[in-house]
Design goal:
The chain has 15 helices and no strands. About 35% of the residues are buried. Helix content is about 70%, strand content about 0%. The protein is an all-alpha fold and about 375 residues long. It is globular and about 65 Å long. The chain folds into two domains: about 170 residues, no CATH class; about 170 residues, no CATH class. It comes from Parnassius apollo (Apollo butterfly). This is (apollo) hypothetical protein.
């Protein structure tokens, strides 16, 4: 059984150099050693759109932050596709697609400008960061899907690896800019409902008898396979996930509690970062857990009451007596409904992230 919470994937030297350089600097600052004529074209293209023009909520440095965030996303995707050796876009096609994204983002910013207030400032800014990320994830996924003949049939994994690299780069930049917003402008995520609920569940699970933990995995196993999420996984990933959950539920040779403790440590790291963001280096799979939870926390931040209170109560009751199946199926259904209620791009975003996370951690080693 493979459960690797440090799934390895190499983004490529050029992409890594780019990310490490630009995430710590201003891409439009004039520093030339990572620049190129083509990158300059992208910088000029984005800045010429004046995305924050006449919008009160994103003036000055915040306007620059949005421009920089978009520029870095564009250049990182272009770098990854360039390293892949496949030509998916002509330059004209690429810039046409980017121009369309920029027009869409201008519309989003104008809508936010009409809605934002002091109480909702954090929600709308985080929403902007995530919607920009979602736009570029969609660009990657749809473009690769539209060009199946670009891949060598004898190298079936190349398509998957290109998607993985792109999603990881996009969410790394997204997370970095969420941290910038919080650290530099005190615009921080305020709701952590999903993260705290998952932490409470894992904390309890890792402190009860192993046979009870396996019983929970069996309930989860049944609830997951009845969900719409499971049907969206690739056959390979779905099969591996099924094998792993089956082993965790039934095999005494699998350290189920230890595996859950590894996930718990990742959740605790996220909670430790609340209001105290830093540049902690994380493996790609851990970054994906963070951004998936960030998405879910953001989705649930519009709920006025504690959305997981009843489930956690039933879960705690179950650790002492009773059954859990119907409550777990209910909360899984509600989670699925919450994701489905988001825009198509935001639903696609979190599905991409979950799929890449599972591929990195449970797909068979080649």
């Amino acid at each position: 059984m493979k459960v690797n919470l440090h799934g390895h994937l190499t983004l490529g030297k050029e992409v890594m150099d780019f990310l490490s350089y630009f995430l710590d600097s201003n891409p439009a600052s004039g520093r030339r050693d990572m620049s190129s004529q083509e990158n300059d074209v992208i910088v000029k293209m984005v800045k010429s759109k004046q995305l924050c023009r006449d919008l009160q909520f994103c003036t000055g440095l915040l306007s620059q932050l949005i421009d920089d965030y978009i520029i870095i996303q564009i250049i990182s995707i272009k770098s990854i596709f360039k390293e892949s050796s496949y030509e998916f876009f002509s330059k004209t096609e690429f810039y046409d697609k980017i121009n369309k994204i920029l027009r869409d983002l201008r519309k989003i910013l104008k809508i936010v400008n009409g809605k934002i207030n002091d109480e909702k400032e954090s929600y709308y800014w985080i929403s902007i960061i995530k919607k920009i990320s979602a736009k570029f994830q969609k660009l990657v996924i749809y473009n690769i899907a539209d060009n199946p003949n670009s891949f060598d049939l004898e190298k079936k994994d190349e398509r998957k690896i290109l998607i993985q690299k792109s999603i990881i780069a996009i969410v790394s930049i997204e997370s970095n800019y969420e941290m910038k917003l919080c650290a530099q402008y005190s615009i921080c995520i305020k709701s952590f409902e999903c993260t705290r609920a998952l932490h409470a569940i894992l904390k309890k699970l890792t402190n009860i008898p192993e046979d009870k933990v396996r019983s929970f995995i069996r309930y989860f196993y049944e609830a997951l396979f009845a969900s719409t999420f499971y049907s969206r996984l690739s056959d390979i990933t779905a099969r591996e996930f099924q094998i792993i959950l089956n082993d965790m539920a039934y095999s005494k040779n699998v350290p189920t509690t230890s595996l859950l403790q590894s996930v718990l440590k990742t959740i605790e790291l996220r909670l430790e970062q609340i209001g105290n963001y830093n540049d902690t280096q994380m493996e790609y799979d851990v970054q994906l857990i963070h951004v998936i939870l960030s998405d879910l926390d953001h989705f649930y931040s519009t709920h006025t009451s504690q959305p997981f209170r009843d489930f956690i109560k039933n879960f705690i009751d179950w650790t002492m007596y009773g059954r859990l199946g119907k409550y777990l199926r209910k909360i899984m259904y509600e989670l699925g409904s919450e994701v489905s209620s988001q825009s198509e791009e935001m639903s696609l975003k979190i599905m991409n992230e979950v799929k890449v996370f599972l591929e990195l951690t449970i797909d068979p080693e080649k």
